[in-house]
Design a protein that fits this description.
- This protein has 106 residues and is an all-alpha fold.
- It has one domain.
- Helices cover 71% and strands 0% of the residues.
- The chain is built from six helices and no strands.
- Helix 1 packs antiparallel against helix 2 and helix 4 runs antiparallel to helix 5.
- It is globular.
- It starts with a helix and ends with a helix.
- The model has no long low-confidence stretch (mean pLDDT 88).
Length: 106
């Protein structure tokens, strides 16, 4: 039985998106784990699990999506944690419009 796109995004896409944004905040924008957690609205323990690959082991490999994740991380820094949900929704729509779930998440 095929899963619908939203179900795929909830189980695989959402954790991967949150992980990649969090990693971007730390690696690209120099935030520490506590700052990234505050910006993303999650606990520092969750950030630690993302960074150590204990949570959301799926990686996003698509270069265009990675660029969009970088843009989202920058917007979250500029606009604060209230922009996390709109940015995640934006990324989800981009991935869904691409129609390549299995190729993006490996």
């Amino acid at each position: 039985m095929n899963k619908n796109p939203c179900e795929c995004m909830i189980w695989k896409g959402l954790p991967a998106i949150k992980k990649e944004i969090t990693k971007c905040l730390i690696d690209q924008f120099g935030k520490n784990q506590r700052q990234a957690a505050r910006l993303m609205g999650m606990t520092p323990a969750a950030v630690c699990q993302y960074m150590s690959n204990k949570r959301a082991r799926i990686k996003i490999n698509d270069k265009k999506i990675k660029i969009e994740i970088n843009i989202s991380a920058e917007r979250i820094i500029e606009n604060g944690s209230s922009s996390v949900v709109p940015e995640i929704c934006r990324l989800c729509q981009i991935i869904r419009s691409n129609g390549k779930y299995s190729f993006i998440f490996k």
